[in-house]
Amino acid sequence: MGSYLIKRIASLIPILFGISVLVFTILHLVPGDPASIMLGTNATPEAIAALHKSMGLDQPLVTQYFHWIGGILRGDFGVSVHSGEEILPQILSRFLITLQLTVFGVLIGWVLAIPFGILSAIRAHSKTDIIVRVATLLGISVPNFAIGTLLLLGFSLYFNWFPPIDVVSFWENPAEAFQVFILPAVTMGIVVAAGVMRMTRSAFLETMDKDFIRTARAKGNSQWTVVMGHAFRNSSIPIVTIAGMQIGYLLGGSVIVEQLFSIPGLGQYILDGIYQRDYPVVQGGVLFVALVFVLVNLLIDLIYTWIDPRIKY
Amino acid sequence: MKKRVLAGFFLSLSLMLSACSGGGGTAAPGDQAKPQEGQQAAAKTELVVAAEQEPVGYDPHKVPAASSVRVYALIYDSLTKLDENMNIVPNLAEKWEITPDGKTITMFLHKGVKFHNGKDMTSEDVKYSFERILNPDTGAIAKSYFSSVESIEAKDPTTIVFHLKNADAAFIANTASAYASIVPSGSTDLTKEAIGTGPFKLEKSEPGQYVLLKKNPDYFNKDLPKVEAIKFQIMKDEAERLAAIRSGKIDISVVSADSAKLLEGKPGVQVKNYQSLEYSYLGINVNKKPFDNPKVREAISYAVDRNQIVQTVWKGEAALTGPIAPALTNWAVDTASYPTYKTDVEKAKKLLAEAGFPNGFDTQIETAATYPDMVETAQVIQQQLKAIGINAKINQLEWGNYIETWKSKDMNLMVGRNTSGVDADRSMRFFFSSTGSANVWNYSNPAYDELVNKALATVDQAERKKLYDQAQTLLVADAPNLFLASPKNYYAVRDNVDFTPSAAGEVYSLIKTSIK
Fold first, then answer.
1. What keywords tag this UniProt record (chain B) (predicted)?
2. N or C terminus: fewer CB in 10 A for chain A?
3. Which pLDDT belongs to residue B54?
4. Exposure of B274 by Cβ count < 10 A (0-12 exposed, 13-18 middle, 19+ buried)?
């Protein structure tokens, strides 16, 4: 287990290095440069050249790459070419916001998904099952910007209620933070729920067919004991897998939800960086997201061994 | 039944929410109260303005982003400014004198103006600011506006003299630009400092969330500004801005023409508009075959029905335009005087045949996917050109890519938008003279160059007007661009806010805004 952990963590280095090269190259291959985007169609060639120089973009690409990666290794993510702000503090503070939103959204999603998913599996082909499946289908197929917009307009039009505009953290003021995050989290939660619910249903259906469940029933256990005591843990692996992937994606920034509700999260930060060709912001942001993603995956793999003792690394 | 279920759902959720807000604790004042009460509280002196984009720094000489300009133009002052009729009026400069040869401009500064740090604003600061703009290392946006300046002399603390290489009739108008703001002498990093003489001070900037400006109590115009604070709240999504203004969370927001229609007649909100200085155009690369043939361009001009663009793209809420947007009433020529503005498909076909393309040809139109109006304009033009046999493919580009293509001078046709600027010189010379830095169409006509250069050197405004009239007529006939429509801009404003937008700019309106 220990050596496995070390191996896994060591394998992060080539992964992150590969990502850094990839994102750097792709970003610089995309047409458009920050100086001309900043100056727009009002640009004079001298102004663009001067801006290039001050952004350090007149250097050869390889020099730029090593300058950047060297900084990262020293913990210096550089400054935004657009605003001149330090990038790392920005990434961290925005990640915290995204983290709060994700935790809230995922909780809502699971609270909805797991009980209904189980219910739908143990009452397969009943009315309940059909309702749950239709709801799942809706949750998967209606895009989250539509759900978000409906929630936003619905609340402001019918109840004149609009979430507080300034984001506060849960540690500062839980009540206000709840109001800020509730609509975006519900928006996110619906999408999360749909995926998890589907997986829960099919995983349970499969498990409920297994011999050990029949044995458990034959021994006269109650439905509750059979489902929660025997089936639950044995169905968890695929659920945890999909949940882990969802968390990874959401932590990378649920761009649309953040945009819709003006949540200054990581996704929005990187997206703005892409529009403005703010190279250090996008590179640093993507690298950070990649790191979070692989760490979440590692965590999921570790959770597997706890759920199913047969899995050993 | 369904409605009731939905209403019940919203009701229960909102009850849950209002229950939560009861224990709000130490939230910012105003946020805790219900929106309507917050709006009507007598003590409300903070104006909340929705910002669609985040400001990207506050250096007025270097940052052209509109999201930044709207903020720093409230922090800094320029020597002159515009009034709502687009006339140049005094600002930091109380008055000015121009020698008869037009080569020496003496400006007398307002006395007793202080920077936000308490320092007096003197002619040395003005000299420093303009020298900073003219220094190539700064990469200042306004450098080209002041290329006629030879030297600047701080004669005494309140007198500044500009010595010009040649007479420059646009000089005074250009000093009204926010890009020519006066900054304190010796400032090095203006990106975040933001110390000006303007009506507001930069209080706080929360990345991704808001920018808070507080009233400058020492502002040299004692009656202004009328509110204690302005908060620019960053809200990128139009649906969110609409919901926020309807529920009173924000006071002022730019809205699209479509949303303006939705808001009309809704309680608590007023929609206000003004004729903008912008215009849309179809750019034509005059170097590219077959567009190097003037007859082909003329044919395109006859084939395009500009009125249809006004009706389809702008729902009738735009004006026909020439090279200078109609909001600049002093300079714009009446579009009725341009022969090619009367759509004539037969004539267009004939011209095309004369040019050697009786069956038309294939080409492409580049446009920016970022702006739906540009895409729609391109689509309407595509249809109209089809009528004379020109088959145009539309290429929708992402903004960064679009700018690159624009700069490349290698496109065929391109749909875009320009801002006229406040003086005719910018609309004409900057975009279309042979050496104009925004002339990416390769248009070069010595007769045109002579007209606009002569106009720049002419101090007599009536004479200038005549020259620009000729230049506009010539330009429309040569058609390196087809000038299409100048749209209206819309603001949604809460009922209790006295805000009147005009082409003079948001800043001009915001300073005078009060809350009832």
1. Signal, Transport
2. N
3. 85
4. middle
